[in-house]
Amino acid sequence: MEQKNTWETYDAKQLAEVDCFAREYMDFLDNGKTERECIDQIVNTVERAGYQELETLVKAGKKLKAGDKVYAVWMNKSIVLFQIGTEKMEDGMNILGAHIDSPRLDVKQNPMYEEGGFAYLDTHYYGGVKKYQWVTIPLAIHGVVVKKDGETVEVNVGENEDDPVFFISDLLIHLAQEQLEKKANKVIEGEALDIIIGNKPLTIDKKKKEDDAEEKAEKDAVKKGILDILEKSYGIEEEDFISAELEVVPAGKAREAGFDRSMILAYGQDDRVCAFSSLKAMLEVTKTKRTACCILVDKEEIGSVGATGMQSKFFENAVAEVMNLVGEYSELNLRRCLAHSCMLSSDVSSAFDPAYASSFDKKNVAYLGGGMVFNKFTGSRGKSGSNDANAEYLGHIRAVFEKEKVNFQTAELGKVDLGGGGTIAYILALYGMNVIDSGVAVLNMHAPWEATSKADVYETKRGYVAFLENVAM
What we know:
Layout: H1 12-30, H2 35-48, E1 52-53, H3 54-60, E2 69-74, E3 78-83, E4 93-99, E5 104-115, E6 118-126, E7 139-146, E8 152-157, H4 184-187, E9 195-198, H5 211-219, H6 221-234, E10 244-250, E11 255-257, E12 263-266, H7 269-284, E13 291-297, H8 314-325, H9 331-340, E14 342-346, E15 349-350, E16 372-375, E17 379-380, H10 391-404, E18 408-410, E19 420-421, H11 425-429, E20 434-439, E21 441-442, E22 450-453, H12 454-470
Parallel strand pairs: 1-2, 4-13, 4-14, 14-20, 15-21, 16-18
Antiparallel strand pairs: 2-3, 3-13, 5-6, 5-10, 6-9, 7-8, 7-10, 11-12, 12-22, 16-20, 17-19
Helix pairs in contact: 1-12, 7-12, 10-12
């Protein structure tokens, strides 16, 4: 059961491919810090690769045949890709599924206020975060503001070298005796995660103002200064925050880590590392017997809810539309297609951290550099909320990976009684299809900066290609 270090299995050509793939992945991370930004990149990429928009084909009454490639986007936050195979869709598809949302801070709908000479934006954290990790680091704001007239204004501030950044303050160590006695989950409260966005008052021409107007302007002068900048830069006013989706994320680019440059340190690798690997696998496969499918969704970090989460009917509706265009649709055939499909629920797993070794079962944990990870089950404690994959399915995948020489390891999230987590696997398993969790080991999972192994990212893409081209049960 001893696992090899994946780096030791590569020749010079593969080592070069690992670095090339890592650079592509890091660029994807840099330009995709929100779901919308990821979707924009993905659509541009797949259209260059010959994918056609499903809705356009439906309206035109076009038919699909083996080898055709189509995609469908939902609300600019989720996407599904299909490459039509030579076999009937009724007999099932090979599906890769990942999520493109990541833990962050969301700006509230009535967020702006001034206190003590600072202008702030009030936030609500999204997903599981250690709140104390988000203070005193450079932050950027990404997202959209939709005005009443329907105009959409894109916002991306804090990433370019000449951009300003934002931050959350913390109490100086000299006065922090009481603070340091609190439990970690109370050191920084959720309502304290408000970002500082300015400190300079708006200049007031007092000669042109009445006394009462002057007093009001001076009272909120810093806030008014920020609103003046927003109006001049983006044409938005304070009320426009009501229909805005603004995400606060760590500022800065993905970086190589370690003297040996073997790792990637970046924001949002859970789960964009699996999303990118899945996307690249879809683009790499040629003709397949079974229809290949890749679904990249939103809202996994908060339970896969809403219209863009995996629990919505978006995926099922898209499959029905595709089956109709290949001439196979009926309600019964749709159910057969989903039940006979095989899926890799592509999500990250925890990597062994020697600094916190007591939290892991060393025999059943993923190691950085150990290759692609399989989690037969996720969930928490007594497997609560998990998808527990079928042994026959895992045995079949093992055979495929051995044939294709894909390096992989098996893991659990951590020790049994310490907690756990879930993925989208259980939702797809409700159709009756074979599903298993797989992906990349991540160090610092859900922290502002997460670490992965370049070798694991590359090997996971190789594993996804092998799955799409070979798996059928």
